[in-house]
Amino acid sequence: MSAVWIAYRLLAPSIGVLAPAAAIFASPEERRLWSERMGRVSLAGGCDAWVHAASLGEAQAAGPLARALLALEPRARLWLTAQTRTGRGRLAELGLPVSLAPIDSPQAVARFFAGVAPRLVLIVETELWPHWLLRARVERVPVVIVSARLAERSVRSYRVLGRGLSTLVGGLAGVLCQGEDDARRWRAVGAPAERTRVIGNLKNDALPRRAPNLQVARLALGLAPERPLLVLGSLRPGEPRMLARAFRELPAALRAPWQVVAVPRHPRASAELAAEARSAGQPVTRRDPAGGDGAWTAADGPDEAWRWDDRTGVLNAYYTAADAAFVGGSLSPYGGHNPLEPAATGAAIVMGPHHSSQSEAVRALERANAIRIAAPGAELARALETLLGDPAERERQALAGRRVADEMRGAAGRAVAQLAAWKLWPPA
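and the corresponding structure tokens:
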């Protein structure tokens, strides 16, 4: 038995004892929901399925899954959880019972199972909390990972926990993976081969769609309706500087018609990332927090300044109005973010070479010649020059990308169909 696994099992009960008192150190917003983290929730009669989504991205994917479950059994009772408050807020929009997930201590998890009494547990994407799985085993509740993904580094991390975790993974009722690479990695950490299937990515069912009228969509965002739009999405450290340098290398006449919106991946790093762009000679216009959502600070050369929008949840609204998009987390080894989001809206895409966490989507787009992969420097500048300066090529690539995105929808229906084949849904 792994020493790390033994230490975790010994430490978790102590955390469960101390955690209720730790509420005094939490923010007021967090303190208001602290009882949920302690598992103090209830639903009379229990629920037919507990659906867990870690954060905002997974919460977006949980919506199509919940709708597909209810389409097969409209009378079913679902309970939804998230690890983050933003994820919880997104789940609450579905109009179903929702809470923060219990911490992974035996006390909190036992309270949660007693209060909600799930008859099936569906975990979106990756999260493997040992005490959740242990309690589910004790209660004889089947657990299925849906839209499952697993990076190589996660495989290494899980192996550190040794046979204890692999035994729990081997007891899963099913693992419904995003792609073949994910299925291979899940089997490597102990998932039962006969219960590991590929159904696609639930997030693809929630992909945005092209705005019916681009000019109206841009006007609603406070942008110039007639000017084409380039969106720089989910930017990570180092990328604003590299993008600014490539953009500034383009001929001024080519840059001039375009308006550019940059959206950082993490708002807390926004100021530093905006400073990167400025250090590379690119003016940036940031939103004035005192002036509301539509107020933007003045900047030198307002026509060529990038709009810098660090609000949570705005990226897809910009994608729906975009002509072209760069997908971030890909110029440095962050694994990349989802290129199907801008592809689904009809934006022509460029992405960096580091996209290991999006391999299935990138491969599908590459097969259709619907994405440009460019390394930092001259290659990135050439890719931007083509997309911004060649309307015919931009339109061809955009149409190909939309077709790929449309073909990759439907994971929620495939997931529920597989649950039905395994007789895990609808509830008996």
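(Above: one complete record from the training split.) Residues 56-72 form the longest helix (17 residues).
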